[in-house]
Amino acid sequence: MSKHRIEKDLLGSRELPAGLMWGIHTERALENFRLSGRVVHPELVRAFGAVKLACFNTNRHLGYFSMTEKATAIEKACLEMAEGRLTQYIVVDSLQGGAGTSTNMNVNEVIANRALEIAGKEKGDYSFISPLDDVNLHQSTNDTYPTALKIAAIRMIRRLEQSVLALQEAFQTKEKEFAHVVKIGRTQLQDAVLTTLGREMGAYAEAFNRDRWRFSKCEERLRVVNLGGTAIGSGLGAPRQYIFRVVDNLREITGIGLARAENLIDNTQNADVFVEVSGMLKACAVSILKISNDLRLMSSGPDAGFAEIILPAKQAGSSIMPGKVNPVVPEAAAQAAMVVMGNDQVIAQAASGGNLELNQFMPLIAHALLENIDLLTNASELLRVHCIQDLKANEDQCRNNVMNSTALITAVIPLVGYEKANEIALKSRAENIPVREAILWSGLISEQRLNELISPEAVCRLGF
Question: Are residues 213 and 298 in the same domain?
């Protein structure tokens, strides 16, 4: 048995190892595209397997595969791809020219060679099972790649939603746990009015609740696909019945409510849907970044900062400063959020850079979009497990801040008026006495009434 096989393409022939699972098109891509050092996302590979299976099933139903041995082998190989059992053979760089042709051909060649293996044939025996004439029958990269990307994104966003839901629930738990902790509410980083730590946590939970609602809109946008449109959305080279049936098959295989685009030309050339979805994902990144920075600020110190909350200590913070523990988890989550925001701009530029009937930058859109979903999922999990679940309130510090802040004076304005309250604030500062003492010294309000005004119930009441 020869240790090598010869494969041909438009540019010539190449000698490949006989047992290689991919072929000449993949080999050329490996030589041409040494860019990111990262292979195609495994979820995109699995989604491609589902797309190929749907295309095969449709073609088989229409009578294009009469030989049972051949059909059974292709079907099984497509299924293995869809289940993630062939992912290790999709080796091309995730960034590539050709609108994703290298990925599509890598998938076609691996499915073909695996099917040949199943059928007991030699790899590379494309006279029996061809990557192009059989596996890619009635398809184009231009309809299979974006369709697979949308399926992968939907599946990943569903997992992201569960991760964000768990984070939301963690904040809701802290909302109840800290409901009694009165603290300083701040605007422009300056003392403003009284609030509770529980209310702050509840606001964070609500932000993530809105993100979850946006995720459902993401799926709504992504479920419209151009499969069956082939090269530019005109269906060139595909039979009419195939075009009408293939998305129905894909819907059954994936369990996702996919629909064929009413205008396949539009859905093939325009990538604005990915920009819209990216924007909704960016909103989640904004929440993560803002809240991570709040957590860092509220935990600052611990001796010369806000020190209102105590974050779980995860690692020593310095190689030179003894005793220092940094807020590394919110810092890491914040960095993930920043990458998501940067990728959002990348997606916008890639989508706007398409020309005429096709967007040639689809691999970049896929690379950035799927990375963003991964980053948001991981950042949400990181925050929940390593920060929020074990977050503690520094109740003594919160109480001391309240008693020595002008925010305390704001609470008595409804009883004494703004001018009197202002006099109390000036006296506190001029004589360097605690604000609470200055309020009681004025004689305008009793200690009992003051305690009532700064109770958790009072500061959370809507109005007075």
Answer: yes
Short-list 59, 64, 113, CA closest to 86:
113
Looking at residue 202, which CATH number applies to its domain? 1.20.200.10
Within this chain, do residues 209 and 353 fall inside the same structural domain, yes or no? yes
Same domain, 102 and 217: no
- At 37 the three-state DSSP class reads coil
Question: Which pLDDT tens digit goes with each residue over 44-97?
Answer: 999 999 999 999 999 999 999 988 899 999 999 999 999 999 999 999 999 999
Contact between residue 202 and residue 172 where contact means Cβ atoms under 8 Å apart: yes
Tokens of 313: 């200590």
Cβ-proximal residues to 91 (8 Å cutoff; 6+ apart), any chain: 22, 26, 30, 39, 106
**Contact 260/235 with Cβ under 8 angstroms?**
no
Q: How far apart are CA 397 and CA 310, in angstroms?
A: 11
Distance of alpha carbon 333 from alpha carbon 290, whole angstroms: 10
Report pTM: 0.93
> Which residues are catalytically annotated?
318
Residue 320's pLDDT band (cuts 50, 70, 90): confident
